[in-house]
Amino acid sequence: MPANVLYGQAGGVTAVINASAHGVIQGVRHHRDHFGRIYAAREGIIGALREDLVDLEREDAASLDALRHTPGGAFGACRYDLGPLESHKHQYERLMEVFAAHDIGYFFYNGGGGSMVTAEKVHVAAQQMGYPLTVMGIPKTIDNDLAGTDTSPGFGSAAKYVATSVREAALDVASMAESSTKVFIMEVMGRHAGWLAAAGGLAQGRPDDAPQIVLFAERAFHRRAFMDRVREIVERVGYCVVVASEGLRDADGQFLSVAESSHVEDWIQLGGVAPNLAEMVRRDLDLKVHWALPDYLQRAAAHIGSATDVEQAAAVGERAVELAVAGENGRMPVIRRESDEPYEWSVDSVDLARIADVETTVPEAFIREDGYHITEAARRYLAPLIRGEARPPFINGLPDYARLGMFPVERRLPPYELDEQVAPQKGGKPA
């Protein structure tokens, strides 16, 4: 009998991660002679450890097809790292027991850099323990920092939301700048990589249009220079809009704002750059300032999803299945850019070991020489990624998203208690 398939989602979700799930499901449908049943693990690797699986074969086709335009993680995602095989062998033994109990021979794990570490660990463990398992990583992250791929599925839609929100908010600010707010600051996600801040720069159509300032995680923040730039722009334009990476650091390499420390060693939760910058502006320049923190909104905005992003997210899911059918193992599909204009791309693949937990930051060529905006090279790279509208269907004025039955698979093993979370590699956030 053909082996069964297990799919899982991990890390911060995106507006298009479920499109990748749909791509996997479609791929399995197209190769019924090669695969058995397809399951999903609730909350990613946590569900796999707990034997908390759902049977996708019991879902109706319309509900599964609706995944293509549904944000969030339909099956639940997690931030949970497996420990090293040497010291946490019991975790991997449990996984192999669960896989064997449900005849699982294919494991597709959909996530970012930390999640690819988890996928690689499972791949290596299965080989060392002699369990016949094909493991495929599937890329996603709004941070756009995955190595080996031209762009990360999830980024294009988040970038479109950020650029659109900046342009719309700027019109509000400009309309009342004479007697009200002079400075508006929007904080976007990006711990070590300023890709989303760069995307905000796309909103600027003419030289003095908003945003007038982009603050990248890759460039040190200098308070005096920043204040001088804000003052000059307000005096010349009448107002100033700033897009700032949450991972902004000072000249000493310290984050400008830390929301909280995690119990996981060497991991901190960022947040609060915008209000901190706003307070600096109030104190130094005595200007009225407002700030915004899109937070989850930027990664959940499927109502303004990028058609390019949705297409690519589905494509990497389907390609993961094709790679498995071809006998590949321990790989991750990646996007290859063939040209900017017209925008053409293809799907290739790389070894998980090469890209797991490796971050790609905004290159110097994409950051203007003064450090406060994007270059034309950045625009050429970013512009195709936000093109096209992938609007979900609307009912009674609201988007209509997938509603799955989430039919549980009968457990065959004793309950399992999760270990306390282990410290992630390289001090990064958990998968």
UniProtKB/TrEMBL annotation:
Cofactor(s) needed by this chain: Mg(2+)
Stretches assigned to coiled coil: none
Residues carrying the site annotation Important for catalytic activity: K140
Functional pathway: Carbohydrate degradation; glycolysis; D-glyceraldehyde 3-phosphate and glycerone phosphate from D-glucose: step 3/4
Keyword ATP-binding carried by entry: no
Cellular localization per UniProt: Cytoplasm
The protein's Enzyme Commission number: 2.7.1.90
UniProt function note: Catalyzes the phosphorylation of D-fructose 6-phosphate, the first committing step of glycolysis. Uses inorganic phosphate (PPi) as phosphoryl donor instead of ATP like common ATP-dependent phosphofructokinases (ATP-PFKs), which renders the reaction reversible, and can thus function both in glycolysis and gluconeogenesis. Consistently, PPi-PFK can replace the enzymes of both the forward (ATP-PFK) and reverse (fructose-bisphosphatase (FBPase)) reactions.
Assembly description: Homodimer.
Identification of the protein by name: Pyrophosphate--fructose 6-phosphate 1-phosphotransferase
Source organism (scientific name): Thiohalospira halophila DSM 15071
Source lineage: Bacteria, Pseudomonadati, Pseudomonadota, Gammaproteobacteria, Thiohalospirales
Gene name per UniProt: pfp
